[in-house]
Amino acid sequence: MSKISWIILIVCSVSLTAAILVFGKSRDPSYESLDSFATCLADQGAVMYGADWCPHCKRQKELFGDSFRLVKYIECPQNNQLCTDKKIESYPTWEFASGARLEGEQSIAVLAEKANCPLPPIKR
């Protein structure tokens, strides 16, 4: 095999691996209802900070579907001073009663672990 063939093979392999890592993320399973889970997050002091124009926030909200109405959510552009005081630098940012923070979109499993909430039942 020629040197050029090896280089092409390596580039293709790296590109394929990168594509799998970026686009092959497993999605959250479909849950029966996230109402009790969203209520638990709120009861445990979890807060999501975001902005309506943020595509990551939109996807995070879509993950909850109609149950997002039960999540404690702060719209930072409308609460600029609060978000500045809290040092919110990216959206979405999740803050927990423990003081722990997570930036970016989070899975239901990660949020459940951080907030000490039980995972909701998965649709069968």
From TrEMBL:
InterPro entries: Thioredoxin-like_sf (IPR036249)
Stretches that traverse the bilayer: 6-24
Keywords: Membrane, Transmembrane, Transmembrane helix
SUPFAM superfamilies: Thioredoxin-like
Superkingdom assignment: Bacteria
The protein's name: Thioredoxin domain-containing protein
